[in-house]
Amino acid sequence: xxxxxxxxxxxxxxxxxxxxxxxxxxxxxxxxxxxxxxxxxxxxxxxxxxxxxxxxxxxxxxxxxxxxxxxxxxxxxxxxxxxxxxxxxxxxxxxxxxxxxxxxxxxxxxxxxxxxxxxxxxxxxxxxxxxxxxxxxxxxxxxxxxxxxxxxxxxxxxxxxxxxxxxxxxxxxxxxxxxxxxxxxxxxxxxxxxxxxxxxxxxxxxxxxxxxxxxxxxxxxxxxxxxxxxxxxxxxxxxxxxxxxxxxxxxxxxxxxxxxxxxxxxxxxxxxxxxxxxxxxxxxxxxxxxxxxxxxxxxxxxxxxxxxxxxxxxxxxxxxxxxxxxxxxxxxxxxxxxxxxxxxxxxxxxxxxxxxxx
Length: 358
Known about the structure:
This protein is 41% helix and 15% strand. By secondary structure, it is α+β, with helices and mostly antiparallel strands.
């Protein structure tokens, strides 16, 4: 009855006040909206990285842009780091390119056909059956040249012969992983024979050149073949480019560098390491971090390229190889940093993309 006695203009004003939120409510909603769209705390990522001595570089790339780049202890964007066994993962890309170019028949080819001179005098049927697939997945069944055998191997007069003379210690295949830098060196020898050029030149021609990476010199064996799988040097930014190449299916700046099917084959899970439980592909590792499947290249001392396909994320870290703190497991600290800090923070920026999962 009261409303009937009020002027129509006043009734309309009261109705408008009832539906329009006041300043306090508007501020509350604005804060809530900001929280929902807030990005990652990049400072938290930087601060945690700074406490991970001997880590000396961190590069985080989201989609195709670097969002965090930090250096410590004299490291810098143009300073190359010895990436140790990350070299194996780089070499894997060359094998895929050589297969695509028709220089190598395929991964099921026996090594005896790819290195016939090296197999002269070898009549062990187990060794004669070893294929390129077995070599790349570390499932040859041969005793490795790494760890306790590494010193004797690099001191030998013939690195290829030494690797092939190792005894058979288990049946080749997915149930038997024997990690060996001798395997990756055999891959370097195969590439040298198949392409007619040194591994370093082939890197420059088909991979490093297109990515803008410098093909710096590194160790050679007694026969002049470049060491496959160790001691290459790249800058953190160069490592990021390689990780981005694989995230984008082998494409760099619109050009197909590594065949897309090879990316998938390289990330296959052909065996499991008996030492750490990680899955292994073609010189690539796989395990779960922070609820995400992560493909990664791993070098001694804390050198890593992590690729998180569902999140369109590449994370590179390098670490000092001298004057290192004792009593810590540096690799585990890096794994925890990725799982507990980098992946959760970056996940706030954009939800994972199932279409990018591989």
